[in-house]
Amino acid sequence: MHPLLAALTQSLDLPSDPCLAAPLFLQYHGYAKTTKHSQAVAAECARLALRFGLDPRAAALAGCLHDVSAVWPAAERLAAAEALGLATLPAERQHPLLLHQRLSAVLAEQLFCVSDPAVLAAIACHTTLRPAPAPLDLLLFCADKLAWDQPGRPPYLANMRAALDDSLAAAAAVYLRHLWRQRDTLSAVHPLLVEAWEYFEIEE
Fold it and tell me: Where are the domains of the chain?
């Protein structure tokens, strides 16, 4: 294990079940709010999985681990990514917060021993989505946005929940449209977001 990762669990005796280990890991590092959000996302993932005929265990696992890289503050994420050998994009260097999806996938695999490629792929694009997303990608992307962790009620929530009556893809498109309309105010626009937008051919 990379020393950077080993240092995160020093003095920690985590259970083998990642869904039990992740909350303890986040709380140990002082991220109670992220713990609460991740548990809410995991619960939403399980509900959506049952609704759309996907594996609820895999879905909940993705939800539990999608934000574990929060243990690195945004200012430290670029250095962490480089130390772990991740090739970074200009948008990620400009706005290191965008790295957290890929860093969380690394932690899920190397620290929490997740081997399911579908779970890892979903975690790695849960903020931006990606073109030709797999069902679990869509599910985690939607669950993360539905389990809102900021003050107030998100403006897209009602439309997104209504779109779920159609499909996960339709619900994802609602949020992509919401984000795309405010792209000029974003610190950086990730190429995957652009590619996802173009893939869905969403009308503004």
Answer: 14-200
* Separation CA 22–CA 123 (nearest Å): 14
Residue with tokens 């005796």: 13
pLDDT of residue 153: 83
Alpha helices in the chain (DSSP H): 3-6, 18-28, 32-52, 56-65, 74-83, 90-94, 100-110, 117-124, 135-146, 157-163, 168-181, 191-200
Top-tier CATH class for 14-200: mainly alpha
Cβ atoms of 45 and 161 closer than 8 Å: no
Q: What is the pLDDT of residues 111-124, one digit of tens each?
A: 999 999 999 999 99
Cβ atoms 180, 197 nearer than 8 A:
yes
> Is 12 within 8 Å of 121 (Cβ atoms)?
no
The DSSP secondary-structure symbol of 164 reads T
